[in-house]
């Protein structure tokens, strides 16, 4: 294999962009960021040590097809989903959108089709509002090497009733970077429920760099859920960025079920007056992995509400860090910032941290936080076991109960059931070594 | 027929405040067979709950001497879940609350824990059985969809313990103060549930402070416990004597030197 220094990334990125028929603005953005990213600093997150991870060891970009038959290994259940996009590596496997929605102007397609078919719309929102490409080294790297993703656009006043679902599967049957961008734009007074799943097929060690932007215009309401389950060999930077205008609402429910090392940059900006975000995160950490999750909500607008709820479970020798950052800027009068982070440790070798950070620069606000790191309640265990349930199953029941307040938030039953099954699988794996 | 034997059982707990072991049971002997209902009565603080927890296998209670046998085999080395699967059940005085786990999924897990992986109870069969038991206990469907004991009133918790008993169908059920905090109607309902279980394959040890419950669940044998020992055993008439004379009267009749915690 060629080393990074031997690859002419400049030409390779240009060629990749040309092969994808990308508009000039995107090609230019790629090349600017390619030149810039090595100089930019890595994003800093309290207590999360990931600086030595191979998150910028790019392979030479090339348009390459993946064999969708390999997806059978994942047992994805989208046969009867009305609105669904499935990608595997750089290959689009399925795109489906209810024709009625399409007639109303709803767009849901893979990111490369979107930049070709709706260049102005994508250009307007792509890394302009929720996150800037030069925000840090990893976002710039992302812009330079982007090789997959999706665009969802809901026009003004359109209410999408059926959930929109994306399955973005990393192809690790070979060495290939997975650099995904999902751009969700909910225009004024629209409503949409979007659910996404990430997973890996194959065992190669690869990097994943995912940037999701959710832009909610005035009075828009977005319900967003995600289940991330990258493989043990995947090292990931997973960034989700929300930007809310006046009276917009964004409900996040995210399950961090990865098996490898990930650093999670989860940020929501309450820009408009009266904007409201509910951020719910569950995480299960097993093996030797580290999941470092930095969840931040910033109240910029007046009378904005930001609530963070994170529950996580740690098994074996793994580590889980929950940062909860609530920031109310000066002038954001009448705002509310609340957070709760709780970590349950199942093993004495596990490391857990629930780290509340409140930054309040305005007086006329309400704010609160709760954090804990604890063990499974022995009285609860005794009670369950006294009914004949064995220790491991009893533990899983208690844990599922502990994670339940996020699970119940997920509107699509399919996603909820899948997350429940994923948690069960991860717990069973994690319990094997005990 | 199954047999449960408690032989010269001594149990100690670690006193959290003083950090030292304290002996609670000082040699309890008790033999019961399925088909029989035994009652244990005794003043507060005498060790009734300790006995039930020690039989069930609560790790907070340490057996320092003696044995507990099920069908002639010691169960002291078995963890609580194995004792449960071997046929023991304890309706607890203070059941735990578990948020996020529904009552119904918990009961299904309990039943399935007794069955092979390839022979789990079919959903329909389970629901029919559940509905039947709910009807016996005057309980509504929404109780089973709620989280396990979370936010249940004292009375609801007791009913829920009996519901589990009826679903699980153990060989021996220890009911620890199942009557406390129940009004007369609830007491009748709970008794109806226990009486429905009566039969040659079921035995029960009913722990109570008051004789009242025993009007509804008539025991075959009554034991009086004081200061960590069973001090007298007899028929149902013993319960009436206790009711008439009080624990102090029985103590004085027997010439036992203990102070009752309820005495001023
Ligand atoms: N887990 C425990 N830790 C410390 N002391 C206990 C514990 N359980 C019971 N005891 C003590 O043991 C004695 C007997 O209690 P218990 O068995 O609950 O009596 P009863 O059920 O007859 O009222 C009491 O003095 C009580 O304080
Ligand atoms: Mg008691």
Automatic annotation (TrEMBL), chain A:
It holds the Pfam family SufBD_N. It comes from the Bacteria. Residues 175-402 form the SUF system FeS cluster assembly SufBD core domain. Residues 88-165 form the SUF system FeS cluster assembly SufBD N-terminal domain. InterPro entries: Fe-S_cluster_assembly_SufBD (IPR055346), SUF_FeS_clus_asmbl_SufBD_core (IPR000825), SUF_FeS_clus_asmbl_SufBD_sf (IPR037284), SUF_FeS_clus_asmbl_SufD (IPR011542), SufBD_N (IPR045595). Belongs to the iron-sulfur cluster assembly SufBD family. NCBIfam families: sufD. This is Fe-S cluster assembly protein SufD. The gene is sufD.
UniProtKB/TrEMBL annotation, chain B:
Pfam families: ABC_tran. The keyword Iron does not apply. InterPro entries: AAA+_ATPase, ABC_transporter-like_ATP-bd, ABC_transporter-like_CS, FeS-cluster_ATPase_SufC, P-loop_NTPase. The keyword Repeat does not apply. Keywords: ATP-binding, Nucleotide-binding. Residues 4-252 form the ABC transporter domain. Transmembrane segments: none annotated. Gene3D superfamilies: P-loop containing nucleotide triphosphate hydrolases. It comes from the Bacteria. SMART domains: AAA. PANTHER family: ABC TRANSPORTER I FAMILY MEMBER 6, CHLOROPLASTIC. Belongs to the ABC transporter superfamily. Ycf16 family. This is Fe-S cluster assembly ATPase SufC.
């Amino acid at each position: 294999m060629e080393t990074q220094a031997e690859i002419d990334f400049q030409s390779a990125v240009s060629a990749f962009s040309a092969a994808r028929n990308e508009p000039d603005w995107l090609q230019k953005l790629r090349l600017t960021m390619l030149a810039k990213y090595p100089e930019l600093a890595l994003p800093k997150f309290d207590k999360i040590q990931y600086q030595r991870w191979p998150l910028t060891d790019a392979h030479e970009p090339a348009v390459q097809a993946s064999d969708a038959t390999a997806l059978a290994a994942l047992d994805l259940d989208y046969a009867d989903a009305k609105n669904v996009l499935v990608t595997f590596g750089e290959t689009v496997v399925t795109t489906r959108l209810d024709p009625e929605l399409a007639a109303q102007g709803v767009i849901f397609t893979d990111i490369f089709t979107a930049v070709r078919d709706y260049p102005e719309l994508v250009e307007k929102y792509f890394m302009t509002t929720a996150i800037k490409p030069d925000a840090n080294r990893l976002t710039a790297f992302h812009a330079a090497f982007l090789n997959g993703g999706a665009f969802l656009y809901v026009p003004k006043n359109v209410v999408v009733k059926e959930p929109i679902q994306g399955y973005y599967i990393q192809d690790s049957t070979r060495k290939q970077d997975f650099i995904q961008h999902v751009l969700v734009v909910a225009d004024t007074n629209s409503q949409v429920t979007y659910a996404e799943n990430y997973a890996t097929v194959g065992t190669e060690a690869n990097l994943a760099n995912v940037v999701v932007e959710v832009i909610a215009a005035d009075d828009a309401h977005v319900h967003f859920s995600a289940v991330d389950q990258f493989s043990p060999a995947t090292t990931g930077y997973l960034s989700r960025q929300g930007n809310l205008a006046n009276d917009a609402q964004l409900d996040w429910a995210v399950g961090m079920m990865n098996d490898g090392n990930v650093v999670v940059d989860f940020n929501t900006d309450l820009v408009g007056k009266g904007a409201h975000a509910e951020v719910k995160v569950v995480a299960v950490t097993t093996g030797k992995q580290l999941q470092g999750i930095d969840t931040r909500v910033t109240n910029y607008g007046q009378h904005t509400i930001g609530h963070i709820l994170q529950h996580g479970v740690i098994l074996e020798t793994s580590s889980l860090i929950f940062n909860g950052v609530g920031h109310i800027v000066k002038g954001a009068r009448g705002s509310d910032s609340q957070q709760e982070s709780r970590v349950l440790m199942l093993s004495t070798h596990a490391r857990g941290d629930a780290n509340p950070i409140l930054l309040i620069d305005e007086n006329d606000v309400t704010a609160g936080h709760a954090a804990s790191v604890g063990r499974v309640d022995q009285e609860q265990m005794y009670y369950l076991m006294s009914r004949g349930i064995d220790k491991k199953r009893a533990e899983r029941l208690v844990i599922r109960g502990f994670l339940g307040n996020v699970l119940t938030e997920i509107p699509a039953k399919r996603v909820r059931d899948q997350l429940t099954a994923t948690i069960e699988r991860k717990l069973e794996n994690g319990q094997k070594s005990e | 027929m199954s047999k449960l034997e408690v032989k010269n059982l001594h149990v100690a707990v670690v006193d959290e405040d003083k950090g030292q072991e304290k002996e609670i049971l000082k040699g309890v002997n008790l033999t019961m067979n399925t088909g029989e209902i035994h009652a244990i009565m005794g003043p507060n603080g005498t060790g009734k709950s300790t006995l039930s927890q020690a039989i069930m296998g609560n790790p907070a209670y340490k057996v320092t001497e003696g044995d507990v046998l099920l069908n002639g085999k010691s169960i002291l080395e078995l963890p609580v879940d194995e004792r449960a699967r071997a046929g023991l059940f304890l309706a607890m005085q203070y059941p735990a609350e578990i948020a996020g786990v529904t009552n119904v999924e918990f009961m299904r897990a309990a039943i399935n824990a007794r069955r092979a992986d390839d022979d789990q109870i079919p959903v329909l069969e389970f629901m029919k059985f559940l509905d039947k038991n709910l009807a016996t206990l005057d309980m509504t469907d929404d109780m089973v969809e709620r989280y396990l004991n979370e936010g249940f009133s004292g009375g609801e918790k007791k009913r829920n313990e009996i519901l589990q008993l009826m679903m699980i169908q153990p060989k021996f059920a220890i009911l620890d103060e199942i009557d406390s905090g129940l009004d007369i109607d609830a007491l009748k309902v709970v008794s109806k549930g226990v009486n429905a279980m009566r039969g040659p394959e079921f035995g029960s040890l009913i722990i109570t402070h008051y004789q009242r419950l025993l009007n509804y669940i008539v025991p075959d044998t009554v034991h009086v416990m004081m200061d960590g020992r069973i001090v007298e055993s007899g028929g149902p008439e013993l319960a009436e004597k206790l009711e008439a004379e009080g624990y102090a009267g029985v103590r004085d009749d027997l010439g036992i030197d203990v102070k009752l915690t309820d005495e001023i």
